[in-house]
Structures are given as structure tokens and as C-alpha cells.
Design brief:
With 250 residues, the protein is mainly α. The protein is built from eleven helices and two strands. The protein has a two-stranded antiparallel ribbon with strand order 1-2. A hairpin with a 3-residue loop joins strand 1 and strand 2. Helix 5 runs antiparallel to helix 6. The protein is elongated, with a radius of gyration of 22 Å.
Length: 250
């Protein structure tokens, strides 16, 4: 039924993708039983550990259900859990789409932070901005520090769901943020604009001005998108190698 798998991608990822495709395509439907573990090991040429990990991922995704003593069965189709990590976030179009989503989410996060942030939370935001400057001065790209600043805003809202969503989106958007900052680092005026935009968000939050905080966050991301749109084809071709490095270190 299946061909043996090999290659640079983790074997468990490949097996999970193969089985998921069988389900998504309808070749395996609701109530169908997956081949036994022994059969999958033989057909795919992988170990039992790989098969078990792959099935565990399908279970987490809500695609299958192990039944004691009977095997693993395909579950009814339902809305799939959000999994943006399965998509490429290094292309120009995808990066801009992520920026649009961040604008909606982070604008509201900043507005809530303005009404809820404690003095300690504001101090953490200031420290995060200082860390960006410090990282850049030391020759870094400031990506992790940039993520930490935006995460500190979400955390100051006290909304655990918002924090989890912002953290997830930040992890997914990490390569996109690296590309954004690489673009902004090409010109001093871009770099200074970003610093000004970040501080505008912080000062609005510190002042307790929800509308100003929302506007500042959205303006920052709108300008980030505009700066990316203005980048020429050479810049985007140079980011292809950057994406490979990111995948290798993630």
C-alpha cells in the first residue's frame, strides 16, 4: 500500500504526512482501520518507534483514534486544528499575510495592555526594547528580542488565550520576522522608523491610552508591510538562503 520512505525530513514527519494524505484524500475514510503497526513498519521501511510517533501526531491532530485491542481507526472529518507551521512562511505573499494577521491581533493586544498593564509590565516592555538595541549593537538581528517585546505586550493583558495565540503566531512568524528585520536593517531610516514605532506603542500603553496603543501597533505593522512591499526582487532572492538556514536550526 505504501512505498518506503527516506530522505532528509524526519521519518516520523514523512510517515505522518503519508497517512494524513490517505485520510484527507478519502482513500481512508471514517471508521477505516489503519494497517497494523507491523504492516506499516514493513511497508514503509521504518522502525516501530517512527510509526508510533507518526500515529501519535495523527491522534493529536484529531484524525485517528486508537482503540484498545482493536487497532487505530479513522475519525469523522471535522475542522482541523490550526497548523500554520505546515505552511511556508518565508515567501513574500505569506510573510505579508502573517503581518496582516499580526496587525489585527496585536492592535487589540496593545489596546488591552493599555488598560491592564501594571508598572512592572511596562518596565518589562522597556527592557525588551532596550534588549533589541543591545542585540543590534552587538551585531545581532534582534529577532528574538523583537518577539519578546511583542510577547510582553500580550502577557501584560492577563488574557491567557491571547498570550497563547500570540506566542504561537510569533513562533510561526519567526522566519518572517527575520526577513522583515533583514529588510529594515538595509537602511538607517528603516531602522530608526522601527525604533520610533516600537516606542510609540510602549508610550501609549504606559499612558493608558487604549486607542493610541491600538493605532500605534497597527501603524507599526502597516509600515512593516509597506517596507516589505518596497523591497526589490534581489532582496527576496537573497532571503531564500536565509530560509534554508532557519529550517536547519529550528
Amino acid at each position: 500500500m505504501f512505498a518506503k520512505v527516506s530522505g532528509p525530513v524526519r521519518l516520523a514527519d514523512q510517515v505522518a504526512a503519508i497517512l494524513a494524505e490517505e485520510i484527507e484524500s478519502g482513500r481512508l475514510t471514517e471508521g477505516d482501520k489503519l494497517p497494523t503497526e507491523v504492516a506499516l513498519v514493513e511497508q514503509l521501511g521504518v522502525s516501530r518507534t517512527v510509526v508510533r510517533e507518526a500515529v501519535s501526531r495523527l491522534r493529536s491532530a484529531g484524525l485517528v483514534e486508537p482503540r484498545q485491542g482493536r487497532g487505530v481507526f479513522v475519525l469523522p472529518r471535522r475542522a482541523r486544528p490550526l497548523d500554520l507551521e505546515a505552511e511556508s512562511v518565508g515567501t513574500r505573499a505569506k510573510v505579508l499575510q502573517i503581518v496582516e494577521v499580526r496587525s489585527a491581533l496585536e492592535g487589540e493586544a496593545a489596546a488591552l495592555a493599555a488598560t491592564r498593564a501594571t508598572p512592572d509590565a511596562v518596565a518589562r516592555m522597556r527592557a525588551a526594547l532596550d534588549a533589541i538595541d543591545g542585540a543590534v549593537a552587538a551585531g545581532g538581528d534582534g529577532v528574538e528580542e523583537d518577539l519578546a517585546f511583542h510577547r510582553s505586550i500580550a502577557e501584560s493583558t492577563g488574557n491567557d488565550v491571547l498570550v497563547s495565540t500570540a506566542r504561537y503566531l510569533g513562533e510561526v512568524a519567526r522566519s518572517g520576522i527575520r526577513i522583515t528585520r533583514a529588510n529594515e536593517a538595509r537602511r538607517d531610516d528603516f531602522f530608526e522608523a522601527v525604533r520610533h514605532e516600537h516606542h510609540a506603542i510602549l508610550e501609549a500603553v504606559a499612558a493608558g491610552d487604549a486607542e493610541a496603543a491600538r493605532a500605534a501597533a497597527r501603524t507599526h505593522l502597516r509600515h512593516a508591510a509597506a517596507r516589505l512591499k518596497d523591497a526589490d526582487g534581489r532582496f527576496w532572492s537573497e532571503t531564500e538562503d536565509l530560509d534554508v538556514d532557519l529550517d536547519a536550526t529550528s
